[in-house]
From TrEMBL:
InterPro entries attached to this UniProt entry: CenT-Element_Derived, DDE_SF_endonuclease_dom, Homeodomain-like_sf, HTH_Psq
Region spans: Disordered: 356-383, 402-460
SUPFAM superfamilies referenced in this protein's UniProt entry, alphabetically: Homeodomain-like (SSF46689)
Lineage of the species this protein comes from: Eukaryota, Metazoa, Ecdysozoa, Arthropoda, Hexapoda
Organism: Photinus pyralis
Name listed for the protein in its UniProt record: HTH CENPB-type domain-containing protein
Record-linked Pfam families: DDE_1, HTH_psq
Length: 460
């Protein structure tokens, strides 16, 4: 219903029906048509199901009866479902579609397939009303706030790495038979002393800038080491502050049993991790007769179940879960960026990606492709689809490609699942520790020698 001051957009989104036409449902229509086919008269079926006789006669002439009223949509339900499926696919591959991108995709989809539309040809975008009603018609998708995920994390979660992890986990479980209260998860997280996002406040209408007082515009990060077991029991956390020396005031009001330390950058290091292990040993009380298992993951008690760690479920993840890693791996092979190429040229890697918008302008419309000569060479199914009359949504908004970027030589090695208490790993860790201690001793010796070395006296 129109109210004074409403815009055309509000009227389209909040339209109130003014007539009782076609107030019957599709189920009523289906039952009425079944009754007619069963021998009932059209007039009687209309009275029984409250559907006009003329409507039943018209619906009987149609191949597929419809209940829709008013103007037809720009896209058919099948075409809208194709858009929905592609949006979900891109989101699962970590290439989510923004509202502006979706409006651009809808416009190109209509133009490339010569579908009659009332979109804005000047801006080459579908309208905001179409977007709002499209989301309303397709509740399978919704606007979400994504979390930044690095390419390395995406590619590391692949079938080979997960298979290696569960193979190690099976070995541990078959040897020690851990109970729920002896399987622990530890993880570190960062907490800023300044809120990243403040709550909304009331201010004068029309104010161009509204602020709120904080301890600093850029907060300092405090690391918290947390740990819990599959039964729901917690180990008191460890707080790591970014400072040179600790102060007793920083321990005021903290959790019971928590410990507090500091480092130059506020991150955990080797020495602090050993300190945390002593803290963990004090509360978990592991022994040779009653050992514990410490794993790393991002969720708490429910995370043990959803990751298949406890109870053990080696088939927890499917091929769909590994699709993003496989997609990025396939792109890497296509770009000739395998491990041999990286070794030959360590300055090159594949970390940047193009946006969805950059991939939506290379597909010609039907009218443009009708004038082109078909190729006589044999091609893939994808190439054959391009020559068809219909342009699919995958061709209009393809998956972005990776591009090369220069990086520094060296860098951390790729990590794999390991059993740190196994003999080979334990020997390697001891050797690495000896090397670090020897290197530190040499550096200390050079420093002492430089202090004892007599200084040159210059005569004037």
């Amino acid at each position: 219903m129109y109210r004074w001051g409403n815009t055309a957009h509000d009227m389209a989104r909040n339209y109130v029906r003014k007539t009782e036409r076609k107030s019957w449902s599709s189920d009523s229509l289906k039952k009425a048509l079944e009754a007619i086919n069963g021998g009932s008269s059209i007039r009687k079926a209309g009275r029984d199901f409250n559907i006009p006789e003329s409507t039943l006669r018209d619906q009987m002439k149609l191949a597929s009866p419809s209940v829709s009223l008013g103007r037809k949509g720009i896209f058919t339900p099948q075409q809208e479902q194709e858009i929905v499926n592609h949006v979900i696919k891109l989101a699962n591959l970590f290439y989510g579609v923004t509202p502006m991108s979706l409006r651009k995709i809808a416009f190109d989809f209509a133009v490339k397939n010569n579908i009659k539309h009332n979109f804005n040809n000047q801006k080459q975008l579908a309208g905001k009303d179409w977007l709002y009603l499209f989301i309303k018609r397709n509740p399978k998708i919704s606007l979400r706030q994504p979390e930044g995920t690095s390419i390395n994390r995406i590619t590391s979660f692949n079938a080979d790495e997960v298979k290696r992890f569960f193979s190690h986990l099976e070995q541990i479980y078959s040897k020690f038979h851990f109970a729920a209260n002896r399987v622990y998860n530890c993880d570190e997280t960062g907490i800023s002393n300044v809120p990243n996002k403040s709550g909304k406040i009331y201010a004068a209408r029309g104010s161009k800038q509204v602020g709120v007082a904080t301890s600093g515009e850029r907060g300092r990060n405090v690391t918290v080491m947390c740990c819990m077991n599959a039964a729901g029991g917690y180990i008191p956390p460890m707080f790591i502050y970014p400072r040179k020396r600790m102060s007793a005031s920083l321990e005021t009001g903290g959790p019971v049993g928590a410990i507090y330390h500091c480092s130059d950058n506020g991150w955990i290091n080797q020495d602090l991790f050993l300190t945390w292990l002593e803290h963990f040993k004090k509360h978990a009380k592991p022994s040779l007769d009653d050992p514990v298992l410490v794993a790393t993951m991002e969720k708490a008690e429910s995370g043990f179940r959803c990751t298949g760690i406890f109870p053990l479920n080696v088939d927890r993840f499917t091929a769909d879960d590994f699709a993003p890693a496989e997609q990025h791996r396939n792109i890497s092979i296509a770009c000739n960026l395998d491990e041999s190429d990286v070794q030959k040229n360590p300055q090159v890697t594949e970390v940047n990606v193009t946006s969805i918008e950059d991939t939506m302008t290379s597909v010609p419309s039907n009218s443009e492709r009708k004038d082109t000569q078909p190729s006589t060479s044999t091609g893939t199914n994808c190439e054959k689809n391009l020559s068809a009359a219909f342009v699919s949504i995958e061709n209009i908004a393809p998956i972005p490609k990776k591009v090369r970027r220069n990086i520094k030589k060296g860098g951390p090695k790729k990590q794999h699942s390991q059993i740190l208490t196994s003999t080979p790993i334990k020997v390697q860790l001891l050797e690495d520790q000896k090397k670090r201690e020897s290197k530190a001793a040499k550096a200390a010796g050079k420093k002492e020698a430089s202090k004892l070395k007599p200084k040159k006296v210059t005569q004037t």
